[in-house]
């Protein structure tokens, strides 16, 4: 039985440390990327409070053969399936290979509203050999929910996952 549970009183850094340890344990030695992303989405949902969506977009291609993000495993409500590079928060993170910490999604140019409830968001690219292979997206119904500590925690997770998804 897997029994990964977070405690409400954990401070943010410790919360992400425990999340990364659990993600390491669950994905170590498992070569199936979808299985690993599915378990990590479930862990994010379990460990990070005040979310309405947590999951992955993978780098894929559109019908013309251009790179674009494609929905991957997640927890939360159904979401938009394809996001062109440079569009919205996820597409910007993927195009610029840079974490996007957005306090107010309504103020972000081109934000893609998959769920009107979302107020703030953090998106972190997952890089392998210098290339973006996916992004991790966390959405919250609370304004300014995410801090630099959240971004640093998700970046650690992204590093761990670079060769596991
Ligand atoms: N809000 C995102 C789209 C993805 S969903 O929120 C799950 C964006 O603007 O990239």
Layout of secondary structure:
Elements: H1 12-27, H2 33-47, E1 53-61, E2 67-76, E3 82-84, H3 88-96, E4 100-102, E5 120-128, E6 131-140, H4 148-161
Antiparallel strand pairs: 1-2, 1-6, 2-3, 4-5, 5-6
Helix pairs in contact: 1-2, 1-4
Bound molecules: methionine sulfoxide.
Methionine sulfoxide is lined by residues 53, 79-80, 83, 88-91, 111-112, 114, 118, 121, 137, 139.
Question: Tell me about the biggest sheet?
Answer: 6 strands, antiparallel
Distance between the termini: 23 Å
Overall outline:
globular
Query: Uncertain spans, ≥5 residues at pLDDT below 50?
Result: none
Strand order in the largest sheet: 3-2-1-6-5-4
Counting DSSP E segments of at least 2 residues, the number of strands comes to: 6
Name some characteristics of this structure:
globular; 165 residues; single chain; six-stranded antiparallel β-sheet; alpha+beta; 33% helix; binds methionine sulfoxide
Descriptive notes:
This protein has four helices and six strands. It has helices at 12-27, 33-47, 88-96, 148-161, and strands spanning 53-61, 67-76, 82-84, 100-102, 120-128, 131-140. Strands 3-2-1-6-5-4 form a six-stranded antiparallel beta sheet, with helices on both faces. A hairpin with a 5-residue loop joins strand 2 and strand 3 (82-84). Helix 1 (12-27) runs antiparallel to helix 2 (33-47) and helix 1 (12-27) runs parallel beside helix 4. The radius of gyration is 15 Å and the shape is globular. The site of methionine sulfoxide (SME) has 15 residues, from helix 3 and strand 6.
